[in-house]
Amino acid sequence: MLIQASQMLLPEGQWLVGDLRITEDKITAIAPHLAPEPGEPCLDGRGLLLLAGVIDPQVHFREPGLEHKEDLLTASWACAKGGVTSFLEMPNTRPPTITQAALDDKLQRAASKCVVNYGFFIGATAELLPDLLTATPTCGIKVFMGSMHGDLLVDQEDILERLFAQGDRLIAVHAEDQARIAQRRQEFAHSQDPAKHSLIQDNQAALNATQLALRLSQKYQRRLHILHMSTGEEAEFLRLHKPAWVTAEVTPQHLLLNTSAYGSLGALAQMNPPLRSPQDQHTLWQALLDGVVDFIATDHAPHTLAEKGRSPEREPPSDPGTGAAAILLEPANVPSGMPGVETSLALMVTEAMKGRCTIAQVSHWMSRNVARAYQIPRKGELRIGWDADLILVDATTYHPVRREDLRTKCGWSPFEGWNLTGWVHTTLVNGEIVYQNGRVNPQVRGRALTFGV
User: Fold this and answer.
1) Known catalytic residues?
2) 130 burial class (0-12, 13-18, 19+ CB within 10 angstroms)?
3) Which fold has domain 52-381+397-420?
4) Disulfide-capable partner of 225 in 5, 62, 172, 452 (CB 3.0 to 4.6 Å)?
């Protein structure tokens, strides 16, 4: 295939209007002009940006065990629509991904269903099962230091120390202090305000856990990744103390929504870690621009509208702050999380078009830096010989996020009504068109990612 006349983002951040050739599943030529070969399919890229496909390094796709919310098929279709050509999925399914057998089961499910590439975390438990060190292929060990219950909660410092002391696999932490959360939950037990979620799981709870994880990482020189960092205090702490082997990510939700969103979205705004203040947002943006935060993940975590206490027939307000949303459930009974793979790229490109960052930075945060951090070979950049995971993006046309357009099974977005640009025109996975002009090709199959090879 020959992609013609697109505006291509090259690895060093410069732009080239020209052509890119794909042979089988690899990029084989990049030039201002390439003559089509006999019988070669051509794809018109005029007026479009050609970028490396997005790699989303934190998603919860709910299969097995919670397929009523999402499954690997619907989630991968949503990925293709949003320009996500590879994902890394978390272990809190039912059963949890804590053994080689559970990992193998997910890999088999993904091979039969996913239209994009896939990788899976192995989950830590207090028992520190031996598969933590031997299960393969996996992108790393996921540790819930807080905001979790059951086997996947690992909140005791002595167990965490043992975990950091053994092996050399990347450890990715959900950094919240469970003891502080439990204490504050008692303090706010009688409040019906959905905004209390941000007070229970407050900034101090996040900072406590991040400081502990970094201390253990430094003690054992252990590769650490801090998931969905949400507070300004954490960002400033890392600015002063972050070593070269530690990385951090931020979600579009924490960059673009704050505690005021509870007024319009109600429980739809509830996630872990929670939304924070406008000042936290400002500090997180600065940390991202300065490289203190390394990349972006969605933490795609779908729940049904009914589980969120909302009627499927009732539309939420189109913009934050336009009115109070009805809450049908007591906040403590509402699950935390929101979908994001379909809107993340468009949200960030829209911010770039406002001048808040550049499109090259967006691509680095959502593709290149992720591939480098997780040592995923041949992905995240437009280079000859690298995998043809590519997206053609329209950064000139705006249209709103609409519920009826979403592919995610949960069927809603906290950004419904937001007018965005940067929507994907065409998504290619391993050289095959998987999404184009609003339609998914269900015949395409992604591949299992490899790490550190």
Assistant:
1) 299
2) exposed
3) TIM Barrel (3.20.20)
4) 172
